[in-house]
Design brief:
The protein has 3 domains: 66 residues, Conserved hypothetical protein from pyrococcus furiosus pfu- 392566-001, ParB domain (Alpha-Beta Complex); 101 residues, no CATH class; 86 residues. Helix content is 68%, strand content 4%. It has 11 helices and 3 strands; from the N terminus they run ααββαβαααααααα. A 3-stranded mixed sheet has the order 2-1-3. Helix 5 packs across helix 6.
C-alpha cells in the first residue's frame, strides 16, 4: 500500500545523498527505530523513514497519531531536530501559518486541525522558528505573495533573499503595468498640438516610473531588507519622490486642460470653416460665379 504525505509533512525538505544513504544503512542494520506516524491515512511524520525502509527492503512500522495540536506536534518533532537554516525555519513557519489559517477558514474545523493561536503574531512566529523578526517578516511576505516559492525556500532550493527579490520584482512590474495608460492619439495638423501631445506622453511616463519606484521602495522597506541604519534615509527618499510625483501630476493635469482647450478651439475653427464653405457654395450657385 502506498501512503501519501500529509500537507504539513511536505513542507519539510526530503533528505538526500549521503544523509539518506546513512539512514538506509542504519535501518538495514538495526531496523526502524521510530515508527512512521499516520493521520487520516496520510504520513504526518516519517516520510524520510518510509523512503529509507523501502530502499533498505525493511517492512516499515506505523502508528496512528494520538490526537492534539497537529501544528505543535509537527513543528516540535521536525523544526528543531533537523539541520535547517534560519531561512528554512522561518519559511516553514510561514507556510504552516498559511495552512492552519486556510483550515480555520474553510477546511476541516476540528479542534486539532486549526491550531493558529501560537502563530497569530509576528513575535510568536519568530519565537517558534527561532529566528529574528526581520527574517520572519521576509518569509511571511514571500508566503503571502507566492506560497509555492516559500515552499521552495523551506526545501532549501531557493534562498530567502532570492525569493524576496523575485516577489519584489514581480510586484514592481505589476504596479507599473497597472499604472500604464494607453497613449491617446488626437489627429491635429498643427505642429504645436503635436508637441503638446508629446509633452503629455513624457510627463505621464515619468509619473508612472516615479510611482513604480515609490512602490518598490515601500515594498523593500516593509519586508525589512534595508538595514535599520538606512531606513530613515529610505523614508526621506520616499517622501521626496512623493512630492515630485505630486508636482508632476499637477503639471500633467495642467497640460491635459491646455490640450482640451486647443482641441475645442480647433473644433470650433473647423465648424466655422465648414459654415463659411457652405455659404460660399450657396452664393456661387445663386450668382453663377466662381
Amino acid at each position: 500500500m502506498e501512503y501519501e504525505l500529509h500537507p504539513l509533512c511536505t513542507l519539510f525538505p526530503r533528505i538526500t545523498g549521503e544523509e539518506f544513504e546513512t539512514l538506509v544503512q542504519d535501518i538495514k542494520t538495526h531496523g526502524l527505530r521510530e515508527p512512521i506516524i499516520l493521520h487520516d491515512g496520510f504520513v504526518l511524520d516519517g516520510g524520510n523513514r518510509l523512503r529509507a525502509c523501502i530502499a533498505a527492503g525493511v517492512k516499515p512500522g506505523f502508528m496512528n497519531y494520538g490526537g492534539g495540536n497537529l501544528v505543535e506536534y509537527v513543528l516540535s518533532t521536525n523544526l528543531h531536530r533537523r539541520h535547517l537554516t534560519a531561512a528554512q525555519r522561518s519559511a516553514i513557519t510561514a507556510s504552516v501559518t498559511d495552512w492552519a489559517t486556510a483550515q480555520a477558514h474553510g477546511g476541516n474545523r476540528k479542534a486539532d486541525q486549526v491550531p493558529i493561536l501560537q502563530l497569530e503574531t509576528l513575535e510568536k512566529r519568530a519565537e517558534l522558528s527561532n529566528t529574528s523578526k526581520s527574517t520572519q517578516i521576509k518569509a511571511d511576505s514571500v508566503a503571502k505573495k507566492d506560497p509555492e516559492l516559500i515552499k521552495a525556500v523551506a526545501r532549501g532550493e531557493v534562498s530567502l533573499d532570492q525569493a524576496v527579490e523575485q516577489v519584489t520584482e514581480k510586484a514592481t512590474k505589476k504596479k507599473a503595468q497597472k499604472k500604464q495608460k494607453p497613449e491617446v492619439f488626437v489627429p491635429d495638423p498643427k505642429e504645436q498640438d503635436d508637441l503638446r501631445e508629446q509633452e503629455l506622453s513624457l510627463l505621464d511616463q515619468r509619473t508612472i516610473e516615479l510611482e513604480a519606484e515609490i512602490e518598490r521602495l515601500k515594498e523593500v522597506l516593509a519586508i525589512g531588507i534595508i538595514p535599520e541604519e538606512d531606513q530613515e534615509e529610505a523614508r526621506a527618499l520616499i517622501a521626496d519622490l512623493k512630492r515630485k510625483n505630486e508636482t508632476l501630476e499637477a503639471s500633467l493635469r495642467g497640460t491635459e486642460k491646455s490640450r482640451d482647450y486647443f482641441q475645442n478651439e480647433n473644433a470650433q475653427m473647423k465648424r466655422q470653416i465648414s459654415l463659411w464653405k457652405n455659404k460660399y457654395e450657396k452664393l456661387k450657385k445663386e450668382t453663377g460665379r466662381d
